[in-house]
Design goal:
The protein is 79% helix and 0% strand. It is mainly α.
């Protein structure tokens, strides 16, 4: 929804200002200029990035059309799951998690939180480290280091798509100049023609420059920024999970370990202590 609103505001402001200045919108419709700029931009994107990055660009673009899934409700689900895991570990021992980590979609522990089950990245992260905790081969410090390594790698990888789109945005003004130069070349070939025709060719060339800049800074760069925000939201979510797990591994009681995780949540999504307490009680009811 915000993408649609943003597009309307950008187009409305630019087109509205042009019309109010007594410009004619028909003069801005130059599909061949758009073909040169858009086609060259997409081609450059394909040249610069492997297929896996191109797929990730499409995936993250589609994600940017929706609200972030890492909202307060998702965080509260995660904290409630962490609390359930820690209570069970204290009560029955880590060895009882074998069935849960091997078949989480059939586990009574995980099926209570469908939002977590649907996010396979989060589910894999939790079950992988539960599996290592059950094995007992690594201590708390070693597991924390391993989580940090994985999350650093994940954070870097998650920004490949928005970096690629940002590079595309940086190149679009230059492709706009290419389109404008092509338009000037056409204009030079029409110098013996009517003044109106020459004027139309010059206008088309100038529109090429306009489209390159407008597409770059009005659409593509903001989309890249939106994709980056979602990647950062995901990284912060994993950081909160890590904080919970590390606190529990260091011997803190389940409520305290969960509180560590709550404090790692961004302030805009962080539930209050009272909200979380009431949510945990409602989940137990």
């Amino acid at each position: 929804m915000k993408l649609i609103i943003g597009i309307i505001v950008v187009l409305g402001s630019v087109a509205g200002g042009f019309v109010l200045s007594h410009g004619h919108l028909a003069a801005l419709w130059q599909p061949y200029e758009l073909l040169v700029i858009g086609g060259a931009g997409v081609g450059a994107l394909i040249i610069a990035n492997p297929a896996k990055i191109m797929k990730a660009v499409l995936r993250d673009f589609l994600r940017s059309l929706k609200a972030t899934p890492y909202n307060k409700k998702m965080y509260m689900n995660m904290l409630a799951l962490m609390y359930d895991i820690f209570v069970k570990a204290r009560k029955d021992g880590l060895i009882t998690f074998d069935a849960d980590v091997e078949n989480p979609h059939e586990s009574a522990l995980f099926t209570r939180y469908p939002a977590i089950l649907k996010n396979h990245h989060v589910l894999d992260f939790v079950t992988d480290y539960l599996r290592m905790m059950v094995s007992g081969n690594l201590n708390a410090m070693q597991l924390e280091d391993l989580m940090s390594i994985e999350l650093d790698s994940h954070h870097e990888e998650s920004h490949y798509p928005d970096t690629a789109v940002t590079q595309l945005a940086d190149g679009l003004p230059a492709f706009g100049i290419v389109a404008a130069v092509l338009g000037i070349i056409i204009t030079m070939g029409a110098l013996g023609g009517k003044t109106e025709e020459i004027g139309a060719h010059v206008a088309a060339a100038l529109v090429g420059t306009l489209l390159g800049v407008l597409l770059a800074y009005g659409f593509v760069a903001p989309i890249a920024a939106s994709m980056s925000h979602i990647a950062n939201d995901e990284s912060l979510f994993f950081k909160s999970i890590k904080t919970c797990l590390v606190a529990f591994l260091n011997g803190y009681a389940p409520p305290v370990a969960v509180e560590f995780g709550r404090k790692a949540i961004p302030s805009t999504e962080r539930p209050s202590f009272k909200e979380l307490e009431e949510y945990l009680k409602s989940e137990r009811a």
